[in-house]
Amino acid sequence: MDRRQRKTRDAIFKAFIKLLSHKNYHQISVQEIIDVADVGRATFYAHFETKDYLLKELCEELFDHIIGTARGGEYHCTFGSAEDSVFLHLLRHLQENDHNILGLLSSENNEIFIRYFKSNLKKLVMSQYAENGKLKDAALPEEYLINHISSSFVETVSWWLSHKRRETPEAVTTYFLATIEPILQERG
Amino acid sequence: MDRRQRKTRDAIFKAFIKLLSHKNYHQISVQEIIDVADVGRATFYAHFETKDYLLKELCEELFDHIIGTARGGEYHCTFGSAEDSVFLHLLRHLQENDHNILGLLSSENNEIFIRYFKSNLKKLVMSQYAENGKLKDAALPEEYLINHISSSFVETVSWWLSHKRRETPEAVTTYFLATIEPILQERG
DNA sequence: ATACTATTGAACAAAGTGTTCTATATCGTA
DNA sequence: TACGATATAGAACACTTTGTTCAATAGTAT
What we know:
Two copies of one chain form a homodimer. By secondary structure, the first copy, chain A, is mostly helical. The first copy, chain A, contains ten helices and no strands. Chain A has helices spanning 3-20, 30-37, 41-47, 51-72, 86-96, 101-106, 110-129, 134-137, 142-162, 169-184. The termini of chain A are far apart. In chain A, 30% of the residues are buried. The interface between A and B is medium-sized, with 20 and 20 residues. Chain A binds a DNA duplex (30 and 30 nucleotides) through residues 2-5, 8, 29-31, 39-43, 45-46, 49-51.
């Protein structure tokens, strides 16, 4: 990729993230992004069809990064112990606050990011727990359960952020697992 | 209230709901609302400061209605049986689809409505279960638990709608309670 | 050095926002 | 019914935003 293209793309992403960290997505105009990125109007539209596409690409980059690192791990699907849970890994990763992702998740923009987060998380939950029979043991439709687990984790993260991350990732993981674990107990 | 005001207000609400049932909130312009409501531009702004305020007032009316009827009931806070659960009542009420509320909840607009829904639901959950000690029995912070219960129910409703309401309200209530009940079991 | 391509900046039409104004219609009430 | 009060219509307004186009310029890769 042309060095100019890379620089422009980076500048736009950086400007967008900066604006998103203290403004609602819908309150940000393309004009502002252009101004902050210090990029020509036509240039912006040469890179991104609309503001929505810019958001989409940003989300994809962020979640590929976050969920990608979690996917690689060798998690034991243990709901009993928090220590090697993939959820703890995610929380720790989020806490590092790469790319200011927490700012994005905690502000008013969260609906949009959360949609992506949840959708990606579902795949992760499925790939981690669907095959090993854990989900089938519960007396509930599998898809309902996957949705429940993913949603609950996303809600847990939102709750954690709204509390200024006062609790440690370990404590939060314990809370979360305490709501999920009992559902997955073997029932005979 | 002046009959003219009432008629205008109604026309605007009706037009807004109609548009919302097949369009995203952010895709609807004031101009469209005016056109569908068949109301003068100045008249709209005499009633609602902005489109956002219109949405806010609509949400308040809808949730006062829905949650209001649930609040009045004499529910037994029984998590074991679905039959007299306040959640079953809510689902049945939603199924009647007053004011086309399901269209609003299931479309892309849901983020906005869901914020209101969840916020009101939290109060309901608190008032129903906070005092009787149920929540305190669980080994989790009370506020985390209330958030978890409310969020899970909202997610359950969304899930139900995304499935075209194939399941009965009774079945959905059973699913939901199966995820909540085990957490609230007495622990000694 | 050359051919290619990205960027710039200005100009543009189209659409939307929220305000202001006057004339008109409708209201509640005496 | 007649009155004053008030809600509405509708047009005009200045303003912002969007997405496109184009010719000139600057940077890249080989």
